[in-house]
Amino acid sequence: MSQLSTNHLLGLDGVPREDIELILNSTDTFLEVLERPVKKVPTLQGKTVVNLFFENSTRTRISFELAERRLSADVVNFSASTSSVSKGETLLDTARNIEAMKVDMVVMRHAAAGACEFLRTRCTSRFINAGDGSHEHPTQALLDMYTIRKSLGTLEGVNVCIIGDIAHSRVALSNIFGLVTMGANVAVCGPPSLMPRHIEKLGARVFTNVDEALGWCDAINVLRIQLERQAGASFPSLREYRNTFGITVERLDGLAKPVLVLHPGPINRGVEIDSEVADGAAAVILPQVTNGVAVRMAVLYLLGTKTE
Amino acid sequence: MSTYLFKNGHLLDPVTGTDGVRDILVVDGTISEVRESIAAANAEVIDLAGAVVAPGFCDMHVHFREPGQEHKESLASGALAAAAGGFTAVACMPNTKPAIDTAETAMSIRQKSAHFPVDVHPIGAVTKGREGKELAPMAELHAAGAVAFSDDGSCVHDTKLLRIALEYASMFDVPLIQHAEDPFLFAGGAMNEGYMSTVLGLPGIPRLAEDVIVSRDIAVAEYVDGNYHVAHVSTYGAVQAVRAAKEKGLKVTCEVTPHHFSLNDEHVRGYDTNTKMNPPLRTRDDVVAMKEALRDGVIDAIATDHAPHAIFEKEVEYVYAPFGIVGLETAIGIAVTELVETGYLTLWELVEKMSTNPRRILRLPEIRVEPGAQANLTFFHPTREWQVDVAQFRSRSKNSPFHGAVLRGRPLGIFNKHQFVWML
Ligand SMILES: [Zn+2]
To answer: Does domain A17-137+292-304 have CATH number 3.40.50.1370?
Structure first.
């Protein structure tokens, strides 16, 4: 059985194609496990996994927790808010505690870019980044890629466009790294004021016209607009955003070929995507959720059973 | 009576124009002889063969944390670090707690430092509490010994206030030192905005934030004929603006830190918070621009922006970490390695950037290495290799990205105010 080249999954930046292929191929096996009446395998029996969530994300935590339990791992959940840095223990204290508790694996979500890397360099456990600020969210990108591959048969040569707030999106960044590695053609689309500098150097083509982007691609990944943060600051209003970039039935109906619609959730209906699209035939948003558990099982399994 | 004979050192003195091996005899803190060979019976002899003797180096931009945050650095520990780094004078920025915005605070810094071998010159705040709203009592601060004015750490952003401060400061003939950064463009950034901030997912500080302020300030300085100095330039755009201002003959000067001419934003990969400073590490191209501007004389001075922070403050998530690194004890090594060894500067020019020019900008008395003058000397070895070990730092703080680096050019000691500090 082949192994991953790395002991941790902090991001998809620099992860070789063989590793991604191994994860996606293993996902097929675990998806099959999820179809069984008894959805549990003893793979990680005796291993302890801590879900360390410094930032609320019920969805991602539940998905990881399901994956861990179905692999028979012992699961501990730790949630802490980092709204106040001055209050409570520091990340360094956390690192020392994890080290003392002899945890096998840590799944970590944090609002600060690089926080997972910070703990990884100070602990001996194996780490999975479940989202660090605007940096990476590798398992989300893997489940997106898996979903596209399953629907379209391949990633090689497939045109994928990520639409929305690219500058503040860990989902966008991880998807770009992974998709480019897998030979897909990647584009990003959104207001130029939400486009990070030099994004094209990562191999992504840039669209500012959503209709042009839709005409070009085979699959779109529609990002959630952070309502509270951006309206008024980086673009004029949610109404204008919906009219300029929103994925509507009218926009999709006018296309020459169908487009697969992904969304990492949670959805702002009527903002970045209309309900008719999110619930329509082109959407694979619920399969993404199912695939997410299987992808996370694959990652946990491959890292948890990897020998040095 | 103390007598020191410094033998065989290579004297580089831009003020007297001396460039050659000399023996220097210092009696009771005063230079009594400078000749090619001196014999003195009762002197303590220090052999400086292979080393450089220069007029005392001056770091015109340090942050000593007294008053208020002495756990990071006190005046005493900062002065020790300065001496260890080969500096006989420093100018300390007013972002203490409270800020150096009253004559009493400025005076107390001078009194507490009076017996140190390193001259500690306070820089007065431009505005009360460095809040950018009302002018600080600049005349009183100047009378109490402030050698310049700055709100460093914050930018004097209000254009009208900047104009008034430049006009008012002109009556003392001292510079206004600007931390050039548009606060709105800065907007909570943690590193240089560019390809690396995109890849690392960190909020960016655009070069534009520095460029627009330097350009605007130069326009104001030209209009009021002000004496304007840019702290820690870090962008190509900023040095181009200064270059143009100098070509026009304006009273505009600037400094650069050792880290801005040696490290770039690729060093942030790995999220080591010792790569977090403000202005941030810029791109490779900017680093080259700093070296060229030093060579061309556009950048007048090398200043460290020595910014001590305790380990527990720096050992946190990158975005939450405070800005700044210590710099006093690595400055000579980085400057020699990055500028002299690479041919951008001669040792002579290095002495100008680290002694003559900063003293001229701050209107400090010039230092002459000649008989009758007070001995104010820096000793360093221009080719000796050494490895940086933060555990050896005299500074109370150890936050340096250069830990483990092998540098050429090692500070050996200083002589100032009758005191001889030798590091070996
Ligand atoms: Zn500053």
So the answer is: yes
